[in-house]
Amino acid sequence: MKEGIHPKYVEATIGCACGAVYKTKTTVGHMSVEICSNCHPYFTGKQKLIDTAGRVEKFQKKYKRGKKAEATTAEATA
Fold this sequence. Notes:
Helix content is 35%, strand content 21%. The chain has two helices and three strands.
């Protein structure tokens, strides 16, 4: 490897707005982030799915109706 062309890889701390602190190595240095895996809704299980215009219910009705129709035709043929 050539000398003097690579950035310095130093220890750094990453601090989150929730108070969590992570130690790692980076070329950037110390960082501050707004959201981390401790407070992100996806990772904590607190994420809410926002349904606009009843799309989820509409899909579920179609899917269930299709399953019921398949079940009745399967019973009729058996």
